[in-house]
Amino acid sequence: MLDDFFTRALVAGIGLAMVVGPLGCFVVWRRMAYFGDTMAHSALLGVALSFLFEINLTVGVFAVAALASLALLFLQRHGTLSTDALLGILSHSTLALGLVMVAFMSWIRIDLMAFLFGDILAVSRLDIAMIYGGGALVLLALAWLWRPLLAATINPEIAEAEGMRPERARFIFMLLMAAMIAIAMKIVGIMLITSLLIIPAAAGRRFASTPEIMAVAASVAGAIAVVGGLTASLHFDTPSGPSIVVAALVLFLMSLAPPPRRQPALLKSGGKT
Amino acid sequence: MLQSTGQSQQTLVEMRNAGVHRAGRWLVRGVDLTVRRGEIVTLIGPNGSGKSTTVKMAIGVLQPDDGIVRRAPALKVGYVPQKVTVDWTLPLSVERLMTLTGPLDRQKMAESLEAAGIAHLARAEVQALSGGEFQRALLARALAREPDLLVLDEPVQGVDFTGEIALYQLIGEIRDRTGCGVLLISHDLHVVMAATDTVLCLNGHVCCRGTPENVLKSPEYVKLFGARAGETLAIYRHHHDHTHLADGRVRQADGTIIDDPHHDHDHHHDHTGKGRDGEHEHAR
């Protein structure tokens, strides 16, 4: 079944969407969109360093993305610049450093476009195994972390006072993000990872009454976007990564359509307002 | 608190000479504070006097830069912060908020919501609540944990005057029922007097402490809040024969609940005291 490149792309994309959905919800809830962008951009530096030191690409990208988030945490605490400015510096300097290093390494031929925008149609069986194996680990960790992380998202002080250890939750969440970026880079590329985090989650918000439902809805929306985007890219001969993002955007726009009239929950339960 | 059981004397939090230093100055310094099981301790003081900082040190949200803070081992805290905002993108019903930091069985959840007077809002999204309703939801959440120590940072923000008194009555009842310790911040000593055992008056340090009556009379308190602050006591000494519920109904002294279409607000309050201080108006 996995002999066909298109089937492999579909399987890989759907697997990725399932992992990205719940993580993306936290990115949206915690207002970390720019932060996710920064971690993703630092991945290119990870690529360059991996080639330079001849280490495994996924490991290198994970390490650099995790270090970038740690650097940000450190600078936030000890620096004087705002988080916004720090993110801007880290985001673009890691990307630029990566590009410059890749240019210097003239002895290796690196397909830069594949890293920047992904090459989902070139995924191998090994890539699929990575996505599902690594993805399952990320989801398990997130399930284990769910309550403390959600409590820390809603109010870190309540979480701290009631023994949820919000700093630890936040740190582990960063590691999970770094792992996800390392896995996702090959599929959608560095430039578009954040969109896959945010757009399906935003599309899922409309249909969710609890955080848990929203996480599932984001995964489903992501999977629909993958199927729709890949099918369209095959049909119209468009690049696969951007096509998936466009499909996600269409889903999001559809979620904005006015709802069929129904009674709000508040009135249904008989309370006065 | 003169309960005779040994457990009621257990010290939940003890602070010795504790202080927090930020950006070149002491937010608060030299605080000695003890909260025992079954005791209600109230912090009062002007804005920026270090009330919230002190409370956050007590429950471990802030680490003291000076002095020590000791908490009973495995102390279960229920915390209601001053302000909580939930991002609109996060779908959160009152019910889901209740299990934020731990699982909860349905019955306990229902009881807590009922006690906080918002049972009818269980399925409402928190973003749709008014300030007062959200405060009650946060209180219900903290109560449902059955904490050893209930900590409330200005629990009456966004609550009207009648609701304010009812809320403090509720806190007193909870203490009586569960025997938990309570540490709370209030901007107005008079309203919390009846439900308070010990008052600490803060202004960057502890100005004075003691029973509410003694603090009211102390020269430090009068200096901090002005002479008139000590004179307006009488209007709060009224007999409440009914309680306004959050959904607009009224619970009477005999426990019956009536709808309240023509409430004329002629409480049996003694308004003949030394006059109103002008700060508090009835909401209607």
Portion in helices of chain B: 25-40%
Structural class of chain A: mainly alpha
Broad shape of chain B: globular
Kindly identify the CATH topology of the domain at 5-191 in chain A.
ABC transporter involved in vitamin B12 uptake, BtuC
Task: Tell me the number of structural domains of chain B.
Answer: 2
The parts of chain B where pLDDT drops under 50 for at least 5 residues are 1-6, 232-240, 261-284
Radius of gyration of chain B, in angstroms, nearest whole number: 19 Å
Helix content of chain A: over 70%
Tell the overall outline of chain A. globular
CATH class of the domain at 5-191 in chain A: Mainly Alpha
Number of strands of chain B: 12
Largest sheet of chain B: 6 strands, mixed
What would you give as the CATH superfamily of the largest domain in chain B? P-loop containing nucleotide triphosphate hydrolases
From the alpha carbons, calculate the radius of gyration of chain A and give it in angstroms.
19 Å
Largest interface: A-B, 33 and 33 residues
Provide a count of the helices of chain A. 12
| SSE pattern of chain B | EEEHEEHHHEHEHEEHHEEE
Global mean pLDDT of chain B: 79
Counting DSSP E segments of at least 2 residues, the number of strands of chain A comes to 0
Describe it for me?
The complex is a heterodimer of chains A (273) and B (284). Chain A is an all-alpha fold. Chain A has a domain at 5-191: ABC transporter involved in vitamin B12 uptake, BtuC, CATH 1.10.3470.10. Helices cover 78% and strands 0% of the residues of chain A. Chain A contains 12 helices and no strands. In chain A, helix 1 (5-29) packs antiparallel against helix 10 (211-236) and helix 6 (125-154) runs antiparallel to helix 8 (166-188). Residues 266-273 of chain A have low confidence and may be disordered. Chain B is of the alpha/beta class. Chain B folds into 2 domains: 1-76 and 149-239, P-loop containing nucleotide triphosphate hydrolases (Rossmann fold), CATH 3.40.50.300; 83-146, no CATH class. Chain B is built from 8 helices and 12 strands. Chain B has helices at 51-58, 94-98, 106-115, 131-144, 161-178, 189-192, 212-217, 219-225, and strands at 11-22, 25-36, 40-44, 66-71, 77-80, 149-153, 181-185, 198-202, 206-210, 242-244, 250-252, 257-258. Chain B has a 6-stranded mixed beta sheet with strand order 5-6-7-3-8-9, with helices on both faces. A 3-stranded antiparallel beta sheet of chain B has the order 2-1-4. Chain B starts with 10 loop residues before the first strand and ends in a 26-residue tail after the last strand. The model of chain B is unreliable at 1-6, 232-240 and 261-284 (pLDDT under 50). Chains A and B meet through helix 6, helix 7, helix 9, helix 10 and helix 12 of A and strand 5 of B.
